[in-house]
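User: What would this chain look like folded?
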Amino acid sequence: MALHPIAKATLQAALISAGSNMLAQGISSYRDETQFELDSQALFQFTTSALVLSPLTFLWLEGLEATFPGSDNATEKENEKPKLNVKNTVAKIVVDQVVGGAWYTVAFIATMGFLRGQDYEVIKGQIQNDFWPILIAGFKLWPLVSILNFTVVPADKRLLVGNLFGLVWGIYLSLMAA
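Assistant: Here's the prediction, encoded as structure tokens.
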């Protein structure tokens, strides 16, 4: 029995998130010259965050593609590769980076705060303190990922590609959240 695409993408995201958190913990241990000891609570929090946010990200990417189709299907001919709709692709990248990036940053900070048992005021303060540094750091990686995803990667593989780049991003977020 094959998994539904959203379930498959969510499972992939959770596994990659868990891996990135374990790598970040190893990096912290190495950097601090301490013996590695797995922080299972942090691992649980990052994995659970991926389980919560990935279905929303999957739906976000589907919505972007539906709103801004990446190819001009009307101009397709038999045995001809679909023509890239540049205007829609640029719009999709900008909306993904500005709206999607902001939404995901707030959702990540809030989800992690909730999983840590923090109250609303603490989470609100973390959003105010961490939003811009995380978003700006993300602008150094995610526009490239969006360009690749929306020009080369088939729509059904975009979350997987994003999750693979997310391995690096997850290490950064894990180190920042530590």
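The longest helix spans residues 86-115. If you want, I can go into more detail on any region.
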